[in-house]
Structure formats: structure tokens, C-alpha cells
Amino acid sequence: MSATIRILHVIGAMGCGGAEAMIMNIYRNIDRTRIQFDFVVHTDKKEFYDDEILSLGGKIFHTTRYNIINYLQYKRFWDDFLTDHNEYRIIHGHINSSAAIYLKCAKKHGRFAVAHSHSTRNSEKSIKKYAFLISSYPIRYIADFFFACSRKAGIDRFGEKTVRSDRFHVLNNGIDATLYKYDSERRAQIRSHLNISDKTIVIGHVGRFTYAKNHSFLIDVFSAIHKAEPDSVLILVGSGEMEVEIKQKVKALGLEEAVLFLGQTNNVGSLLQAMDVFIFPSLFEGLGIALVEAQAAGLPCIVSENIQEEADIKAGLVHYLHISEGKEKWAEKAIELRNVERNNKSEYIRNAGFDISDNVNYLKRFYESYWGDKKNDNYE
Question: N or C, which end of the chain has less CB nearby within 10 Å?
């Protein structure tokens, strides 16, 4: 029997975000007798998925976050790590801010370097943004292979030339559609648990509290909905650095009783059942796995112009509105969509390429192909 292939994933932390959820969906479903995932994370804190990773047989290594000043220390960590750990022949990088360093070290140590983009370009104008673009630009000349959650996420991070090459592949954020299939009984149970009546209009959102997710606008939209429908409720799933700020805004608008902050959870599939409309007003987004999950649950979705077309599974559930159209227009659309009939969307998920088994099978072949010879490309 052949030895287990251990893949080293490099990421900021295994918290409850879209990239992390995508990795874990694959990890849970891949044949772990053949392929195991280990992680280098850039934090000392225990994160959302850490216990599950360990229970699945994975290992977690910790290093400090790269901040330019610690360049020599960061590079030394990788040189030492790769010298001590010959078992990792494939380094799969998900954190791009320092990928030019750790992937270059991987190449120097004879490893196969994979760069993975999970987001489109940040529209925010800041010194931090431009520093990130400068530091991540060399990746396109270093990595052996490139993945992205959408074509645009690939172009924004690696350039059009790379995306047009045979060293690039869009790896869809696959899900297990059975976990999200609409179930009226589960809907009633979750609503009862949350003390929400069956007649209440429930607006939902799943995502980290970050600038990109545009929670401030979402609260404005819900405020307009609540004015028209005083019994309405907003469910927010996730956590993040802007959570306190958003809670303060909710309080200032007098919406504390109507907005439920549910934090990080493994129960997203059930919570989606309780919702009537999913709102996703991101300022930029690689793909938006939460949007795919919402459609799998049969939810009508209102999304911003910044959401990639690939995220629409073509089930007639995605409705685009420009953020500039304003909160009243978004609120009006949400109220209009509240009674959409929901049913099983598993077939649409498969046809759109988001079935987890397809993604797992592709990645398994990819890893096996490059494990012994990085020049082998017979994984299609």
C-alpha cells in the first residue's frame, strides 16, 4: 500500500471564513487514507476549525504573521521548517501577502508550489492595500501552479497571462448539497429555537465582519425593511474585526431586538432554513461560498454588482442590484421575494460545478499527479 500523501496548506488562521470553509469541505470528503492535510497558520490562537483538523488526523504548525520588519525571521522559519519536514512535497498557499517568500523557499527546497486566490481585488484605497499588491505581485513568477475560486479572482491576483495558461485552474468552492437541502420541518424547528414565528420575514447573511462584506449597508437595508415590516428579523452568522462596530450601529438604530448575532457556527445549513431572503452586498468577493450555500437551501438572494457570475447556479434565485441603487430599493426587493417557493436545488448545484465530490476528485488527482513529479500534468 502506498504511503499517505501529506499536503501542507499555508493560511492565516483556520477561522470561520470562506477560504477556510472551502478547505474543510474538501478535507472532510477526501480519502484521508490516501491524502492528509496539515497546516501552517500565522497565529498562536486556537481557531474555529482547529479541533476538527486534529480529529481528522491533521497537524497544525504555528508561525508569526509576516510584517515586512520580520522578513529575515519569517524566511528563516520557512527554511528551517522545510529542512526539517521532507514529507511535504506540495505546498498549497492560501495566504498571498507573504506567498512570495514561503513559496520561493518551497521552490528552493525542491517542493511543488501552489498559489490559491480566494478573493478579487480590494476596492479600498489604502497604504495597506497597495503594500499587499506589491508584496503579492511576484507570486505569478514563483508558483508552479495556480488556483482561484473564480476567473476574476485569478486575474486580479495572478494576471491574465497566468489565467490563460495551462498552469491555472478555477477550483470551485464545492459543497455537500444534502446539508443545505430545504426542509420545512427543520425550518420550523430552528425558528422555534430562535423564538421566531412562522409569519415573520427573516433576512439572513453569512460572512465575516470585514470591510469587504459591507455589513454597514446591510444594516441600512434591514432598517428600511424593518420600517415597512416591524416584525422582521435579521440573522447574522459570522464574526470578525468589525462586529463591535456593527453592533453599535444596530443599537444606534434601535434594532437590537430585531438583529440576531449568532457568531461562528457549524450549523449554517440549518440556519439557512429559517431565512426567507439572503442578502449579500459585498464590496468585493472572490466567489462567495455562502451564496452558493444559500441557493442550495432554495433561498432567493439579493446580491451586489461585485458578486461573480460563476456564483449563480442558474436556479433563478440570484437577483443583482447595484449598491448605488440604495437601501430602499434593496428593501423593496427583499420584501417582494419573501414568499418564493423553496425546493431541492441539488441538481443545479451539480450542474454548476459546485458538487463537493467533483472538486474532491479533481484535487485528489492533482495532488497524486504532482506528488512524485511536478512536471507531470496528466491529472485532467
Answer: N
Cell of 334: 427583499
Look up the domain containing 268 and give its range: 177-351
Q: Is the pLDDT of residue 134 over 70?
A: no
Q: What pLDDT sits at residue 266?
A: 84
336: enclosing H helix or E strand: helix 327-336
363 and 269: one domain?
A: no
Print burial letters for 111-150: b (CB count within 10 Å at least 16), e (below 16). bbbbbbbbbbbbeeeeeeeeeeeebbeebbebbbbbbbbb
> Do 259 and 216 meet the contact criterion of CB atoms below 8 Å apart?
no
The predicted model scores a pTM of: 0.83
Query: Is 131 in the same domain as 205?
Result: no
Domain membership of residue 112 (yes or no) is: yes
Number of domains within the chain: 2
Instruction: Report the alpha-carbon distance of residue 104 to residue 107 in Å, rounded.
Output: 5
Distance of CA 74 to the CA centre of its chain: 26
245: part of which helix (H) or strand (E)? Answer: helix 243-252
Is residue 309 helix, strand or coil?
Answer: helix
User: In this predicted structure, what is the pLDDT of residue 2?
Assistant: 59
**Domain check: are 61 and 113 in the same one?**
yes
